[in-house]
Amino acid sequence: MIYVYAITDTGCAAPLDVRGLDDQPVTWQAAGNLAGACSALPQRHVDPSAEQLWRHETVVESIMRRCDAVLPVRFGMMFDSEPALAEILARHAGALAAGLDRVRECVEMGLRVMRRSADDAGSPPRPSNHSDRSGRAYMLARLEDERRRRAAQAQAEQVGDALHTALAPLAHDTTRRVLPAPRVLLTAAYLVSRDQVEAFTTRARALAGDHPDLRITCTGPWPPYHFSPALESTETAHA
Amino acid sequence: MKSETLTTASSTSTLASQADDDAAVEKEATLLDLVDRLLDKGVVLSGDVTLSVADVDLVYVGLRVLISSVEAAERRRNGEAETGGRTE
Predict the structure, then answer these.
(1) Per-residue pLDDT tens for B23-49?
(2) Chain B contact for A181, CB < 8 A?
(3) Which residues from A are below 8 Å from B13, CB to CB?
(4) Chain A residue numbers touching B78 (CB-CB < 8 A)
(5) B48–A225: do the CB atoms touch at under 8 Å?
(6) Which chain A residues are Cβ-neighbours of B40 within 8 angstroms?
(7) Nearest chain A Cα distance for residue B82, angstroms
């Protein structure tokens, strides 16, 4: 099987100093102006273990460091042969070329905002010390749950809006999710020019100082996973 | 933990205090960031896609593991504060 890591311009396809999954050498499959970084794997299944994920990421980051544009491929993409990969690249050449131009000279910065205490609003209420099984008590409890949920949602949106307002001007594009988990107020990704990364982290650091009650984590630079094109395909199969 | 200077996607800066428990949590948080990107984002090429676990489910599992770790870390911190810093 041919395992695929990332796509870049043909002109940037050169030997890498890192190895891929199962320590296999990374090679290039060209298709017109595009080139896919790939390696050979004997098996048809790949376990998404931390080690394998980091190995995939290492290859993509190596390409990101040397090329001005890279489209990271989702983990687990494999083909029966190199010609099969070349055919797919050629089929989606337009969308992939446009995708490369969109992220050229850019990287992805990540942001995660979490509550510090498990006792903040959003945690489930503690059970009453008194046994009260009346319908009224049940309804009051449900109303309180809903009030807490809405309060948590409102707080998360307020925090998200404030951070977004502060950071979005430094990015070409952004994505965000509000309350993806009970204590995670916000996760966001920003497409940032490479020469703006320092300004971005400086501003994120200042925002953290403005919100000492929150755990604000900034990660990156990542390859532009959140800003890669969605290709039209009806042949993808998931295990 | 590395300094706040970000050089690769494997470095994470928590823009707050750097306690040992924070370091452990942030290491797991970085793995979650990796899982979220590699299994749920990026270019999806047509062809054989074979994963041992469904991608979205794995992300949820990762989130639950992360939240549990944060809570566990804070319980340990609170427990050590109450006992004068002795290890439980």
Answers:
(1) 666 666 678 889 889 988 999 886 444
(2) yes
(3) 201, 205, 217-219
(4) none
(5) no
(6) 74
(7) 17
pLDDT in tens, A57-83: 999 999 999 999 999 999 988 888 999
Lowest mean pLDDT among A159-168, A171-180, A216-225, B76-85: B76-85
Q: Determine the straight-line distance between the first and last CA of chain B, rounded to whole angstroms.
A: 24
Q: Which two tokens stand for residue B11?
A: 């470095």
The DSSP code sequence of chain A is: -EEEEEEEEGGG----SSB-GGGPBPEEEEETTEEEEEEE-SSS-B---HHHHHHHHHHHHHHHHH-S--EEBPTTEEESSHHHHHHHHHHTHHHHHHHHHHHTTEEEEEEEEEES-TTSBTBPPPPPSS----HHHHHHHHHHHHHHHHHHHHHHHHHHHHHHHHHGGG-SEEEEEEEEETTEEEEEEEEEEGGGHHHHHHHHHHHHHH-TTEEEEEEEEEP-GGGSPPPP-S--B--
**What's CA A6's distance to the chain center, in Å?**
15
Residue A131 neighbours by CB under 8 Å, 6+ apart: none
